[in-house]
Amino acid sequence: MLVVQPHVRVAIMEHQTPFMEPHMQTALLPSLVPVKEAARLLSLSLAKTYGLLASGELKSVKIGRSRRIPLSEIQRLSTPQTKE
User: Taking a C-beta distance cutoff of 8 angstroms, is the pair 53, 60 a contact?
Assistant: First the structure.
C-alpha cells in the first residue's frame, strides 16, 4: 500500500473531481509526473531535482523528448530512511 505524505496528498487532491466517489478518484491519478511537478512535490528546486536525476538517485522514464518521474520514486524519496 502506498503511504502518501501530507504535502503529496494535497497535490493528489488537485486531480480529483467533486462528482466522483473517493475510491474512483484515486484511480485517475497519473502514475508519472513531469520533472517540475516532482520538484514541487519534493519541495526541491528544479536544479536539485535534475541533479538527482543525473546522479541516478531519482529514477525517471523518458517518453519522446519529455522526462517523467514515477510517483513511487517521489514517495521513496519523501519517506524518511532509517540507518542500520
Answer: yes
The pLDDT tens digits for 3-43 are: 444 445 444 444 444 554 555 555 555 789 999 999 999 99
Residue 38: count other Cβ atoms within 10 Å of its Cβ. Answer: 25
Residue ranges covered by each domain of the chain: 30-79
10 Å CB burial of residue 25 (0-12, 13-18, 19+) is middle
Non-local (6+) Cβ contacts of 38 within 8 A are 49, 58, 69, 73, 74
pTM above 0.90, yes or no: no
CATH architecture of 30-79: Orthogonal Bundle (1.10)
